[in-house]
Amino acid sequence: MTGFGIATTSADGYVSPDVLARAVEERGFEWLLFDDHSYFPVDTPDEIDAEFRARLPLIRDLPVVLAYALSATQRLVVGSGVALLPQRDVLHTAKAVATLATLSHDRVVLGVGVGWNLDEVRNHGVDPSTRGAVLDEQLAALGLLWGEEVAEFHGKHVDFGPVVARPRPAVPIPLHIGGPSRAAQSRAVRVGEGWLPYAGTSTPEDVRRARDWFAEQGRADLPVTVSGVPGDQKLAVEYRGAGAGRVLFHLDPGPEDEVVRELDRLAGLAEHLR
């Protein structure tokens, strides 16, 4: 049976993440994912949607948003969709995510990606052409930091240790790999518990082809969660038919009353599709 959730942005001046998360949980959704941007480069290409462009500088800090959302809920799975890990320090990330997982009784999912805004990546001191390699090393390092008594990692882009890192999650934190590229899909096959494509860049046919490719790689059971799906019944059915096990409806940030009305509509749609 297809699962349903919400993918959204937590932005300054709009509904707070704790209020939003409580409303999402009350309406029977299973997952709530937030996106991640640290700031907005002024020179971002003009083809970016004007409304999205205006909202980007307002995005709140992801770990703080997740903490608020988790503290307000009991059952809801909360996570990143996606965290731009190459722009973040891996040691701080390991501690933040593990802390969230232990305090929430393992209700955290970590969706990760390399990022699309090359200036944003570059201004964090990362060569955009290496961001995939950086992410690969970070994911390997996270596994050690979360799983070993004493962890160390020596790579081209990530280098530390030996270190003791606490807290350590009681169960593995689910890693879902975002991105439409074959490189992202390969990463999901190698180290992911799922592939997390965005509806704006991956069509139902793209999902179908990816599922076929996963089967060829021996990962026919790799879960697919499509994020940012418009609240349209036909499209949700198409993604489900293509093999998506979970559909996360897109929800624009807004005032609480507007967001709640849209959540009511999306909850009705999800109930109809179950």
UniProtKB/TrEMBL annotation:
GO biological process: alkanesulfonate catabolic process
Protein name: TIGR03619 family F420-dependent LLM class oxidoreductase
Coiled coil segments of this chain: none
Keywords from the named record: Flavoprotein, FMN, Monooxygenase, Oxidoreductase
Domain annotation Luciferase-like: ranges: 20-225
Catalytic class of the enzyme: oxidoreductase
One of the record's GO molecular function terms: alkanesulfonate monooxygenase activity
Statement: the UniProt record of this protein carries the keyword Oxidoreductase: yes
Cleaved signal peptide residues: none
EC number: 1.-.-.-
Signal in keyword set: no
